[in-house]
Amino acid sequence: MEVKILNSNESRLIDIYFNDKVFRRGFQPKYMYADTVFNADPLSAVSSASYGLSRGVGSTLRPFLNAVEIYAAVD
C-alpha cells in the first residue's frame, strides 16, 4: 500500500526476492490500496527462507513495507 500521493516525478517500484532469487520485479503499490503478491506454483520446501526487497529499475523512492503475511499449506 502506498501511503502518500506521489508527485509526477516520483515512483516506487519494488523488486521482491525469495532465497536470493527474483520472485517479482517492478511491483508498484497503489495509493491506500492493500495488495497481495502471490505465486500460484508451489515453492521448493526449505528449512529456512529469506525474503528481500530492493529498489526496482526506474524507481525514485526506496522500498517501503508496512506488513507481511507468509503462510504454507500443509497436507
UniProtKB/TrEMBL annotation:
InterPro entries: Malectin-like_Carb-bd_dom. GO terms for cellular component: membrane. Its main location: membrane. It comes from the Eukaryota. It is found in: Membrane. It is a single-pass membrane protein. It holds the Pfam family Malectin_like. Residues 4-72 form the Malectin-like domain. This is Malectin-like domain-containing protein. It comes from Acorus gramineus.
